[in-house]
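1st attempt posting a full record on here, be nice pls
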Amino acid sequence: MSGGNRLAFGDFEYAPARQALFRNGAAVPLSGRIADVLDALLERPGELQAKEELLARVWPGRIVEEVNLRAQIAALRRVLGCGQGGARYIATVAGRGYRFVAPVHPLVEGDARTPVVDLAQTPAVQRPLTPIVGREAPLAEIADALRHRRQVTITGPGGIGKTSVALTAAAGAAGEFPGGTLFIDCSTALAGLPELLLAALGMRHEAGDWHALQGALPSTAHLFVLDGCEARLDEAADVATLVLRRAPRSAIVLTSREPVGAEAETVLRLGPLSYPGRDDLPADELMGFGAVELFFARAPLGFTAAAAGDLATIARICRLLEGNPLAIELAASQVDRRGIEGLAEIIEQPGALRIQGPRTASPQNRSIEASIEYGFDRLSEVERGLMFSLSVFTRAFTREAAHAVVATPLPDLCDHITNLAAKSLLIVTRSVAGTTFAMPRLVRLYSFEQLKRSPHYSSAMRRLAQQLRRELEERTVWHCVNNDELARALDWCFADPEREELSLALTLSAVPYWFDQGAFGEALGRLGHAIALVANGPRRRVELDLRSALVTLLVSRIARTEVQVDAARTLIALAEAVGDPAARIRGEWALWSAHVWTGEFAAARYHAERVEAIAEAEGDVEGRIAAHRLMGIALHFAGEHAAALTHLDRVLGYFPLPERSTQNIPFQYDQRIAGLCYRARILYLQGDTEQALRAAETALSEGEAIGHLLSIIYILAIATCPIMILTGRAKDARIAITRLRAAVDALRIPAWQEVAKLFEDWLAVAHDPAPRLTDVNRALASVRASAFGPVCTMAAASLAEALARAGAVPEALALADTLIERAENAGELWILPEVMRIRAEMQLRVHGQSHRRETLAALHRALALAEEQGATCPAAKIRAAIAAADPGITKAA
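the predicted structure (as tokens):
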């Protein structure tokens, strides 16, 4: 067909060169896809057009489901009025394709049958049908730009509200333009911009008559609003320049997904509405966000947040939609149909793209998918492919990362990325660290769906996995890694046995990162899957590395103690078979840790000695540091505090090691911090409480400096909280326990949450002169539930005294007897002087002076043991108890 030809069928005329459709002389709006379908059918009227042929014609270079073609055929039938008055234009050939069946006649320019198109006077600009929300700042900027610069181009992604803002700004500025405000929709108009402007000014000229437009621009002040200029960038730029030059009292507002490139263009990039970064904010704060306000404004009449959780869910919806007004409006319209929770589930999935809007909306605004497709239709094939490849990222990415995942090398990749950012399809962030790019979530969902249907999907995912592996192994760029992205890459890797090697390599690279992030559940699942692939096979070295990582993970208490012990023994056996001393050390360390947690300190000392022997024999520096720490802790629990300090001081002597950070913690907790914790406990026992608390505070400060959550929890649970409770610093203890609770809740490991509850319940009764028996029993239940060896006996001894104060002296005496027996059997000798004192005092309370001799004898045995251990603090309490039991001693002294 030549560019000047037109086609006639039924009541219609069609100009293929402009994709312009007229019915009885009146223009009929067509979206780009529908026009492409009509073009294809009219090229060979009466002939069968295969489905595959039409798909390739309408969506070139893309893999699209057949349902999309059916939707466009249905839309075209509605436009043509198929079925109305017996009209029939398109026939379906089942299973094969479609045929245009109405008679088609060619017309030429000047044919008498063609009426003159009536380009009517454009109506005055009105405000949007519904008030806009949260746009006070950009409206003020536009008003200022119109006064001083006379031109502003509002840019932003689809659905961000450019048209609404432009209409509202124009209505607000109408009083400053006596000639009136004129609105032209460039995205759907069939005529050229000169014709449309002339028509809006009440004049009619030949198409593309720029000379006539120059002479027609009035001296009276007008405000021109050109909407959707991304469809006609060149014309829009020329019009904007022409208005500024030839109509000095007029101004012009343009909306476009990218700058139009006019001379002296003033660009206002319209961002999303403000939305909550968290769901747990107070209701009045949540309602202060523009996105939440818009949701309620567009929800059905009578809608209210029925439950407190509804408002939090709405906040999550607004965050998932990233404050995009169109998306929020479409979501809000579905509340009655889906409910808040059902709506949130849809929004979390790609189904959010296909939520339908009002039938009267422009074609590109009837769904998020339509809005995104409208933008993608204006991309080159290279740019579309690039967007699909970049959708594998769920985080901000650098140009270097983009190069790594693009299947086909692009020498001008940076230029393409810059162009995509200009078209509002990528978000640019500049900082001192460099420039990064990110894809809006909804655009990413659409692009990733397209990528998965394309032949480049496997290549892009493999490149993503390889890029992530490089970033994970180069630990200084861990800030670039994203958990969702890593999970996506691993899911893809594990889905095919042919990708097994990459699966294993990526899993091993990710382990230190998961530890650093506290993503223990994710690490446990992935390691279990990887170990199942190689267990008892020929790749023993890989299996050893995986099992070593698993053992390190289990020490964080994410599973039962038996699981940790079994994993450690399996690792030791494999390490001995392979001949890997470092892995043997890790296995022995895990067994030591399991015994310390359960309060089996004699067994723990045995494994500390094993670690020490292996490390010394192998000259392993990290192993030696660990051996001194484990032995120092074991000696502390055995009551050999001086020897313990010698080992702990050796640990501290190895530091600072270079690059000390969370990425260099080989044994779950920072070695220096762990050493300081137990040094603080020993200093407390030796009677130097202030030095003990200073050591604990130093450890806590260092833990916070490196940002290692497990080490922070360790400090608070091992040293800070118990020392503060035992020394009567209730206020400080409450603050420390609150910090502990926040940290363990962030970690979300039940075993550590039980430890936090232990401290909360213990503190509640520790210093109460007359506690309620129910409260003391609740605290004892928390101690038993936590089974946290380093603190359990300490807390239980304190609670035995609280039982006595609550009036349950026989029960307190029985508890003390149990604690003494357990401490002797478990090798926890450090606590014995304190528990023996408590038992002796309660025995005196029950039996009175009739048992004074036996009480004094028990107290003297406790004193001798405390002095032997160098435990000055317990010794002082025991002497006070002896004085109270035998006033004669005090008088003689």
